[in-house]
Structure formats: structure tokens, C-alpha cells
Amino acid sequence: MVSASNTLSTLDLVGTLAIAWQWLISLALAFWIGILVIESIVFKGDKQPSALLARSRKQAQPLQWICLSVMIVAEVIVLILRTAQSTQSQNGNPFDLVALGQILFQSSYSFLWFAQVILILGSLGLLWWFTNRQKRPVTIALLILAGLISIAYVLSGDVALPPMQLRMYAIILDCISFIALSVWFGALAYLGYVLLPMLPVIEPDRGAATLTILLRRFYPLVLVDICILIVSEFYLTMINLGNVQQFITEAYGRALLVKWLFILIMIIFSAYVLYVLRPKLIRQAASLPPTNAEVPERQVRQSALDRTTRSFRQLLSIQSWLGAAALLCAALATFFVSSIVSPFTNGTYNDQVVTLSNVSTTQTKQVGNLSVMLTVTPGEISVSNTVSVRITDTRSRKLVMNEHVVISANMEGMHMGSGPQTMTGDTSTYVATFANTTFSMTGYWDIALTIQSPRQVQDTVIFTVWLSTT
User: Fold this and answer.
1) What DSSP character marks residue 380?
2) What are phi and psi for residue 43, nearest 5 degrees?
3) pLDDT in tens, 7-24
4) C-alpha to C-alpha distance for 351 and 328, rounded to whole angstroms
């Protein structure tokens, strides 16, 4: 038998590996987006394509192949790790093919996983078609596919959230934030590690002039991207955190705080490049004597220009690493956010587990001035289960009737269960029936109740129950 300490350490290891591979997916996706953005926006309108432009387009295709290949492999590994994490937490087994099948075909995560895989394979097929036909890739089509993959990637993390946090505007903001950060990081990495190192070799005489053109087209995009990122991140923070103390007390808050710190440093460096280095680079490039000028004077000015260019490349590299760290914090935040209760509710998330009998599972929790008792009958998997709820006002000691109660169920770590449904409550007991396909696997299940009363603000309480076979 696996000991509790060994099980916990294995879970920690598997969870860490899952986060690392999720981060790798986000890095590959962001770098691919950066390539497409530079090729389609920064180089757009260049009436006289330079050697740098031609070389970059030649270099972009194998890099896109690498990014998409890494993504497809990482998606499969993340699926395996999530299955191992879930089965280890339930029965101590490192892996279970039955659990893998249930995740693939019975969970809400499966649709998003298949969507990502199909979209990535479609992108690979499109790239192969362009390469085989020896045509220049239509970047707008690839950008659309990259956007759809980004949305599916973000949603695959959001399905782990409690249902009251899955508000449409929160999902939209989450997608916008990830895409904005990906564009910023990917464009910086592509410029800093691919384009600029080629510049002195391909265009030694007009490298500075080409660089100033790139900067003139690149930084308006960056400024818009920063504004979008700040607004979306600000509202996401307000949605997911109820108070300032959670920046310290909650793991999600700490990950978010570090992410904000990295983004702030990136903004400072971008402002320095835009308002200090860029004007300096333009002045030095304009004052550079022609090639037939006196050698000492040209050497001095060229040396100063080279130092400015190196500083620019170094700052781009630093910002790329900061962007990668911010994406890591985003992956960690997605992992931790399910433990945070929406600030629009007064409920608390409690991991209290109730012992299961052969007839029912019953437990009671306090939320505000309400005492909520939940009963699951028969409390078994693969059969229809009836959930009954009785709500008592602790001040008047009377049963609360005719409230608007919404219930949903989700398996911890598996993204399986049922979407929100309204409970009927014409009498003192609110009742909802789940089909035999809802609770389909042994393990811990979260049953979330959202209680809306016209006399008070919305309350949410989450019960965690253990369901298994008889």
C-alpha cells in the first residue's frame, strides 16, 4: 500500500510536471504568435523587401514547425499527467487507462483538449501545404488558428474553476490577457533571438536604418498590447481576489503578484527603449558618416552605434525572459485559482470530507446567516443521484423557502460533472436529480450551491463529498 506521505510527494511531483509542460505549451504558442505578428504586422507594407525580410521569412517556417510540434507533444504529456494525478489521488495507482478514457470522452476538459489537438494538427497541415507548394504562408489564416488555439488553451484551465467563477466576461478577459501577453513575449523573443542577430551579417551597411524602421512599426503595437494587458489583468484581479490580503495569504494571489511584478519591469524596460534608446539610435544612425568619409570619425560613430544596438538587444533578451516568467506565473495562477472563491460571493471553499454511508451523504455548512444541509442519495457512482438541500435562517430558526438556488457538480482535478441547473424548492426542501452519467468515477466531488435571495447578496457554498460504489 502506498503511504500517505509517498502519495502526497507523488502528487506534488506530478502536479509540478503538469505545470511545467503547461508552461512549455504557453511558451511555444506565444513564440509562434510572435512570429506571425512580426511577419504580418511589423513587416507589412515594406515596399522594398530587404535581405533581412527575405531571410526572416525563410527562417520562420522551421521555427513554426518546431513550436507546433512541441505543442502537440506537450498536450499529450499533460493529458497523461492529469490522469496520473487524478488516479493517484483517488486510489493510489500511478495510472489508469479507464480514467484516461473517462477524461477523454466523459469530461468537459476532453472537448477543449481535442479542440486544441485538432487546431494544432490543422496548423501543421496548413504549413505543410504551403511548404509543399513552395508558397509564402498566409499569416492571417495562421493567426486565426493561433487565436483559436489560445482560446481553447485558456478555457481548458478555466473548466477547473468553481462554476460561480465561470462568468462570461471573466473568461473573455482571461483569453484577452493571455493573447496580449503572448503577443508581447513572442514578438520580443523573435526580435531579440532571431531577427536582430541576423541584422549585422545580412545588412552591415544599413543595419541601423532597418532597425529604426522595425522599431517604428513594432512599438505602437507594444503600447496597444500593454494597455490591453493592464486593463484585462486589473479586472481579472478584481474578479478573482476579494481583498488585498489574498495577495499574501493565497497561493493564487502570490502567483498573481509576482506576475504583475514581472509585467511592471517589462513595462519599465519598454519605456526606456522607446523613449531613451530609440531616439538615441535614430540620432546616431542619422549622424553616421558615409562609407567614403574619414575612417577615424566613422569608426568612432559606428562604435557608439554598435553599443546602442547591443544595449537594445540585451534589453529585448531580458524582457523575453521576464515574459517567459510571467507566463509561468500565469500557469501557476491557473493551477491555484480553483481554491479562490469569487469576490461576488460570501461563501467559503471548505475541503471538509463527510463519511459516506450506503444510503446517503449528508453534511451541513454555514454561509452568512444561513445553515445549509445537503444530502446526496444514494451517494454512489454510475447511478442517478438526488441532491436535497434544506436552508435554515440561523437568526429566526425558520426554514428558508422559495429561494433561487443553482447547483452544479464537478470532480476535483478531472473537470467532469454537470453544468449549473436550478433546484426546485416549492416546499422547504430543494431538490435536483443528476443522471447516472454525472457521477461516473470514484473520488472527491465538489457540489456548488449558489443561493440568490432578494433580501441579501448572493451566497455560494461548496460541499466536497466522496462518492464510490457500494
Assistant:
1) B
2) -85, -5
3) 334 346 777 888 888 899
4) 27
**What distance in Å separates the CA atoms of residue 40 and residue 241, rounded to the nearest whole number?**
37
Dihedral sign, Cα of residue 157, residue 163, residue 167, residue 170:
negative
Note the pLDDT tens digit of each residue in 371-408: 888 888 888 887 888 888 888 888 787 888 878 888 88
CA distances in angstroms from 361 to 83, 162, 390, 425, 440, listed in the order given: 26, 21, 14, 20, 16
| Burial grade of 187 (CB within 10 A; 0-12, 13-18, 19 or more) | buried
Give the whole-angstrom CA distance, residue 271 versus residue 273.
5
Cell of 297: 570619425
- What residue type is assigned to position 250 of the chain? E
CA distance 357 to 354: 9
Share of the chain above pLDDT 70, in %: 71
pLDDT reported for residue 447: 86
pTM of the model: 0.68
- Give me the helices (H) in 92-167, please: 97-106, 108-132, 139-158
Tell me the CATH number for domain 349-467: 2.60.40.1930
Pairing of strands 398-399, 385-393: antiparallel
Burial state string for 135-169 with b = 16 or more CB within 10 A and e = fewer than 16: eebebeebbebbbbbbbbbbbbbbbbbbbbbbeee
Higher pLDDT, 243 or 271: 271
Joined together, the cell numbers standing for residue 332 give 501557476
